[in-house]
Each structure stands twice: as C-alpha cells, then as structure tokens.
Amino acid sequence: MVLRHVLALLSFGLVVTVSDAKPNLDGIYALAKRRVPTHAHAFSFSLADGDTDSFVVSDVPAGIHVQCTTVSACARGFYAYLSTHGGTDIWWTGSRLAHLPAHLPKVGTPVQAHAIVPYRYHFNTVTFDYTTAFWDFDQWELELDWLALRGVNLPLAWVGYEYILIETFREVGLTDTDIATFLSGPAFQAWNRFGNIQGSWGGDLPTTWVNDQFALQERIIGRMTELGMTPVLPSFTGFVPRALATLYPNASIVNGSQWEGFPESLTNVTFLNPFDPLFTTLQTTFISKQREAYGNVSHIYTLDQYNENNPFSGDLAYLANVTAGTFASLRAADPDAVWLMQGWLFFSSAAFWTNERIEAYLGGVPGNDSLIILDLYSEAQPQWNRTSSYFGKQWVWCELHNYGGNMGFEGNLDELTHGPLTALHSPGSSMKGLGLTPEGQEGNEIVYDLLLDQAWSPTPLNIAAYVDGWVARRYNVKSLPRAATDAWQLLSATVYSNTDPGSQAAIKSIYELAPALTGLTNRTGHHPTRVPYDTNTTILPALKALLKAGEQQPLLKLNPEFAFDVVDVARQLLSNRFIDYYDVLLAAYNTTSSPSAVSAAGHTLLDLLADLDALLATNDHFLLSNWIRDARSWAHGKDKDKNSEAYAAYLEYNARNQITLWGPDGEINDYASKAWAGLVGTYYRPRWAAFVEYLADTKQTGAAYNAATVSAQMIALGKAWSNGTWGTGQGETWGTKGDTWDVVRKVVEKWA
Ligand SMILES: *[C@@H]1O[C@H](CO)[C@@H](O)[C@H](O)[C@H]1NC(C)=O
Ligand SMILES: *[C@@H]1O[C@H](CO)[C@@H](O)[C@H](O)[C@H]1NC(C)=O
Ligand SMILES: *[C@@H]1O[C@H](CO)[C@@H](O)[C@H](O)[C@H]1NC(C)=O
Ligand SMILES: *[C@@H]1O[C@H](CO)[C@@H](O)[C@H](O)[C@H]1NC(C)=O
Ligand SMILES: *[C@@H]1O[C@H](CO)[C@@H](O)[C@H](O)[C@H]1NC(C)=O
Ligand SMILES: *[C@@H]1O[C@H](CO)[C@@H](O)[C@H](O)[C@H]1NC(C)=O
Ligand SMILES: *[C@@H]1O[C@H](CO)[C@@H](O)[C@H](O)[C@H]1NC(C)=O
Ligand SMILES: *[C@@H]1O[C@H](CO)[C@@H](O)[C@H](O)[C@H]1NC(C)=O
Ligand SMILES: *[C@@H]1O[C@H](CO)[C@@H](O)[C@H](O)[C@H]1NC(C)=O
Ligand SMILES: *[C@@H]1O[C@H](CO)[C@@H](O)[C@H](O)[C@H]1NC(C)=O
Ligand SMILES: *[C@@H]1O[C@H](CO)[C@@H](O)[C@H](O)[C@H]1NC(C)=O
C-alpha cells in the first residue's frame, strides 16, 4: 500500500488518495449489495498496486472480479461491467442497476481502463442550493452512488457548514445575535459562503436547520469516504459578521463589493484580511473542529474569496499577500492542506483580473501542487489558455453548462470529448482533472455522462456509438425500436452539437421570464433565449420518433427514463412554440388598435401554458410540489414543537423565493426559473395573463405602454406568490396528474 501511494505521488506529482485510513473495499461491497442485491454475491473486488486509477474486470469461477488500484477505480470498474455487459445504469431519475440479466453475461477478454487524470470532480458551490438544498439522505445516497460508479473521486461537500462556523465564531466572542444577522436562509447559503450576501430575508436561519444539516453532512462524508471519494471540505473563508470589527478594532477588516443590486445591509460582506493573525486563529479553530467531527478524511479545502466580489485592492502585493496569508492559515491548521478554488472570478470579473493580477494572486501560494483551480466553464469560456495553464498550478477542466438549474436543451458533445484532451496535451499543461460544475442538476443528463466517461478514455469518445450505447441502457428493453435511437441521434447531431457562441448554456424559455414587450427573445450569454436550431427538423421529429418507438415496443412506456424523455422533449417543443406565438402577440399589438384582437393573440399563449402545465404534471420529475414538499419536510416530523408549521412556512418561502424573485425585491428575478408543473400553472401563466390584460387595456384606453408599470406589477405578483403556502393557491396538488401518453399525443396534435 505504501508503495502504491509513492507511485501515485511520483506519477501525478500529488497524492490522490489522501484519506489516512488504509483503503478497504467494504464500501464497494456495500454498494453492490445496495444496487444489485440479488447478484451481489457474484461480484468480488481486490486492490492491486498501480500508478494511476485503473481497473481490470474479468471472469472468475464465482462470477465477476474487479481488480483496481484505488477504491474509486473499483467503483468505476464495477460500473463498466454493469453498464457495458449488464446493459443497465443509474440515473438522476433512479437506479435501474437491479435490472441485470438473471444470468450474468461473461466478460470474455478482460476489460481494463485507466483514468486519464487523477481528479474526477463534481459540484458547483451553488448546486448545493439550486438542486440539493432540501435533499434528505435517500436523495444523497442516489447521487453519491451515481458519482462513485462513474468514477468521481473528488466531490465538493458543503452541507452543514454553518454548524462549525457558528462554533468558531462563538469562540472569538461573537454573540448569537451578531451571527444571526450574518447567516443566510436555507435556499441561499451558497452565496453567503461565497461572501456575496449576508443575512436573511424572511427570517433568521433556524438552529434546527443548522443542526439537522450538520447531522446530514456526517452521513454524507462517511459515505463519500467509504466509496473512495475524497470530500472537498469547507474552511474559514474570511467572511465574518459586521460585529467582528467592533470586537477587534485593530484587526484588518474591509468590506467586499456590492452584489447584484442587493441593499448594503444584505451584501458588501465584511472580510477579515487573511494576513491578519486573527484569520489564522479562526482557520485553525474551524479546521480542528471539523476534523473532530468528520475525522481525518481529507486535506483538500474549498475556499473562495472573490467570487463575483472584487478585492478591496488590485495592488499586486496586496493580492499576493491575501493568498499567502490564506494558504499559511490552511497549513497552520493542516500541514497537508491543499486549497481548491472555483476559477469563475477570472472569467466573470475579467476586467479586474488581468493576467498580471492572476499571476500575483496565484503566486502567493507556494509550489504548484498546493492549489487546485476549477476552470469552471471550460466548454465555452476557458481561462487556462490565457493564463499559461494557471501559471503551472493544478487545474480541472470543468463543464458548467447551466445556470440556476435552467432546463432547456443544450450541449456541444463534440467539445466535451475533444476539449479536455486538447487541454491535457497542450504544451506545459498542468491540467489534473475533469469535472462537472453545473449550477443545477436538471435534465440534459447526457452531456454530463459523456464528460465523466471521457475521463476514462485517452481518445475522444465516438459520439454516434456513445449515443447508441447510452440509449440502449437508458431504455433497457428487448428489441429496442430503431426509432428510439434515431430520436437521440438526431438530437445529438443538432441540439447537442451547438456551436453558437452566444448560447453555450441551457437555453432559457421566455415564458419563464417576466413578460415584457422587448428584451425577451434572442438573448445571448448565460441565460440564452436564442434557440440555435430549427425546432421543426429536430425536436418535433425526435418527439414523433420516441412516440413511434413507444407504440412499437409498449414495454418502453413502463420505463421511467423513457417517460421522462418524452415529457422533456414535448416540454421543449412547447417552449420553442411559445416564442412563435409571442411574436404573433407583439405583431398584433403593433398593428391593431382592437383590444379583442390583442386578447385573442394572447389567449394562444395562455392556452399553450395550460397545456404545458398539464404535460409536466404527468411526471414526478417536473413537479413544483416536490421542491416544496422537500423544503417543508425539514420542519414536519423533525421538529415536533408547536412552531413547526411556522418553520415549514419559512422553508417554503425560501424555496419559492429562490426559483422566482431571488431576493426580497426581485434582485435577480427569474434567474433560477424551472419548467415545473405548478410553477407554470400558478405563476408563469398568471403573469402572462396579467400582461395580456394590460396590453388589451392600453388599446382600450389609448394609454402608452409603460415598461416600468409592467415590471412593477410582475414583482408584486412574485411577492404575493413567494409568500403563498401550499394548498392555499389554485390547482395545487401533490403528486402527478394525468396520463403522459394521452397528454403528449394531444400536445403533438395541437402544437406540432
Ligand atoms: C412576504 O413575506 C415577507 C417575508 O416574510 C414579508 O417581509 C413581506 O411583507 C410579505 N409580502 C407580501 C406582499 O405579503
Ligand atoms: C489597538 O491598537 C492600539 C494602538 O496600537 C492599542 O493602543 C490598543 O490597545 C489596541 N487594542 C486592542 C483591542 O488590541
Ligand atoms: C462596512 O460597512 C459597514 C456597514 O455599512 C460600515 O459601517 C463599515 O464602516 C464598513 N467598513 C469599512 C471598512 O468600510
Ligand atoms: C458596497 O460596495 C460598493 C461597490 O461595489 C461600494 O460602492 C459601497 O460603498 C460599498 N458599501 C459598503 C457599506 O461597504
Ligand atoms: C491526518 O493525516 C495526515 C497524513 O495525511 C497525518 O500526517 C496527520 O497526522 C493526521 N492527523 C490526525 C489528527 O490524525
Ligand atoms: C502583507 O501582510 C503583512 C502582514 O502579514 C502586512 O504587514 C503588510 O502590510 C501586507 N502588505 C500589503 C501590501 O497588504
Ligand atoms: C481560449 O479558448 C477559447 C475557446 O476556444 C477562445 O475563445 C479564446 O480566444 C482562447 N483564449 C486565448 C487567449 O487563446
Ligand atoms: C510551477 O510551474 C511553473 C510553470 O510550469 C514552473 O515554471 C515552476 O517552476 C513550477 N514551480 C515549482 C515550484 O515547481
Ligand atoms: C434573432 O437573432 C437572429 C440571428 O442573430 C436574427 O436572424 C433574428 O432576426 C433575430 N430575431 C429577433 C426577433 O430579433
Ligand atoms: C415550423 O412549423 C410550423 C408549423 O407547421 C410553421 O408554422 C413554421 O413556419 C415552421 N418554422 C420554420 C422555421 O420552418
Ligand atoms: C413593434 O414595434 C416596435 C416599435 O415600433 C418594433 O421595434 C418592433 O420590432 C415591432 N415588433 C413586431 C413584432 O412587429
């Protein structure tokens, strides 16, 4: 074992397995029992020496054997068998691994593979809010198995951060009142952790929440470790309650910049300069408490200080001082500490972060192996190529792909296979990993699967062959009709071959935006609304092909992933059609003075949204009610006191506000919009109804269109909706409603 680690060190110049516990395969055996209970006895695993993460799968008399060099590689080897030979897979929509054939197919010639990079990374700091904010351990368990099987060995682990942070703050004399005005609500913790916002709207963060999340994190860390993953743990970042400045008048404290138009009381977060000795005190306290809680499981720490928050000074000596002080504090707390940072700042604040400043900032950290930078948006806005491979520091090629968990189809499969290899083989490359950094996990699953699979292939994956295999195991039926694969080959060659530089992210549907006469269509950037393909020759025929496949092989209709995809493609059809009818409404508004002609044009939009809501309501993965129920569940059953209804309402407000107004007054309105039944029916549709009514009214009265009036009305609707509680609005039901196949057939007849 010692030799193995030394070899790993020599080969990559770093230690990948940082856990001090002697690696054992108990977690992999437990994974097999959990996911393939009736076949678990047939699988055996063993560790062998080797200098990279690699595995060999072969037949043995008792069944199938996976030999691996690391626990993570064993999980990946197990997955290689289950997916390739077993024809099954595990998805965000659930694990189907138990559907292995009764007689396990033989491997034949042993199958081997190795990871092309030492790190396979997952999560964006904000995924912990946009997707997992209200998850319980069952939801985490599926996620962690999905990650481990795909070979991820470096997941971010933010859950429950506040518990240890609060203890740390108390130790330097801050009161609970000081701390309460600093922490943000359950759906907004990521941006408090980033130092973008402070405090909470709608009520202080409850202690019950802090304690429950900490308990959840203990289980998450335990499971990550058992599955051979090294959790990237939180650390003290420097962001502190305002009161620290009063308590330590001589400490070097500055204010961060204002974020996204939030009022000063909620942003300009106070920052303790890392070269102040108090910083090291807080860091060592935090990390030693964390080590006590979770054990000596990782030496890699996530730490971001300037995410969408510019430094107090651009002076090169100051910047180097900040990183030198920060890193010294980490090493004081943990002599093996490695600092991991999201590289988003270098793109999002590119005007501030000149190459000179980046070099000074990174240069404050000694050595090249002490830092890991996530090149956060490599598929579209890589920064490694303008920074001489981050001046030699380790970095990870990351796919971001979506903002706020927006759900529209988008992808560039070719870039995901070629881009990482080009970067890895570029002269002087210090790239050490491949990873996923999506803001949310909502659909478009194929673009994420492909990247994690590319991490195990030294040559670019063949996309056509990849899609065939992906569809076959996703639908997993005998005699899969060719039409099903055709649908995905078509999408892959068009919708998922998007090279439009203006729309390199999940496409946002304009019905999810606050209605207005201008500015909705053809947006480019992070929330593009420009649809870079022709719906009639892509989405529509793909949907028809899937329906045809369902007719030819009725077993498909019992497959949850097939049902998900059919609803998802039909959703995209309606989203795109909405743009056409919106244009019709605008044209009507421009050319007629008749209020009824405007209302009639608007009626089509409302009709479409009603049909969209009904479509989404047929599938459990497109429901607002699940988001709300998950949020409320942290109050019910967990906190039995009489305030638990108030607590549930508080959680629900957080959940509703994040996906709509995002801020007390709509500061980043509609950023995290979703195509969910319930949200479409009780929020987006009423907004459009109000808009159509307003347009018709102006025709009636002859008044000029007033954009400010419309916008204020939309914010007012958002506030009323955010403050609602489940069951008090209209059409709010838990669970699904209606038959997918009936509804989709009608959608195609009516809207094709
Ligand atoms: C909505 O709730 C928030 C937080 O509880 C409160 O501050 C606000 O006044 C309410 N707004 C409306 C329109 O009811
Ligand atoms: C702050 O610095 C001043 C001047 O050096 C000193 O007199 C004072 O005692 C210090 N206060 C604290 C709380 O350390
Ligand atoms: C930071 O902001 C607070 C609140 O507005 C203010 O009182 C304080 O003086 C600011 N601190 C600095 C160093 O600018
Ligand atoms: C907040 O930051 C902005 C710059 O982003 C600055 O103009 C303002 O003075 C800051 N306010 C405080 C209280 O620090
Ligand atoms: C944690 O692990 C490191 C080696 O990775 C070791 O040097 C250190 O002594 C361990 N610390 C504790 C508290 O066990
Ligand atoms: C760098 O940090 C030291 C304390 O470690 C401080 O005395 C010095 O002023 C800092 N330099 C700059 C340029 O901020
Ligand atoms: C880095 O690569 C991106 C994507 O290919 C390209 O747009 C950009 O111009 C490159 N930057 C430099 C400095 O080469
Ligand atoms: C870090 O990498 C850079 C660029 O390859 C190199 O010039 C430098 O010598 C390296 N530093 C160390 C300490 O290895
Ligand atoms: C949207 O952009 C495309 C390409 O730039 C252009 O052809 C089209 O006219 C634009 N549509 C609108 C409504 O602006
Ligand atoms: C797509 O099909 C619809 C319905 O037949 C038609 O109205 C529209 O003009 C077509 N769009 C394009 C770009 O061909
Ligand atoms: C409506 O009129 C405005 C200004 O008169 C113009 O900019 C816009 O392009 C027109 N829209 C349509 C859909 O005709």
From TrEMBL:
Alpha-N-acetylglucosaminidase tim-barrel domain residues are: 120-457
| InterPro entries per the UniProt record, alphabetical | GH (IPR017853), Hex-like_dom2 (IPR029018), NAGLU (IPR007781), NAGLU_C (IPR024732), NAGLU_N (IPR024240), NAGLU_tim-barrel (IPR024733)
Q: Name one GO molecular function term.
A: hydrolase activity
The question of whether Signal is a record keyword is answered with yes
Q: Where is the Alpha-N-acetylglucosaminidase N-terminal domain?
A: 27-105
Record key words, sorted: Hydrolase, Signal
Ranges of residues in domain Alpha-N-acetylglucosaminidase C-terminal: 466-750
Leader sequence segment:
1-21
UniProt name for this protein = Glycoside hydrolase family 89 protein
Please report the organism this UniProt entry assigns to the protein. Polyporus arcularius HHB13444
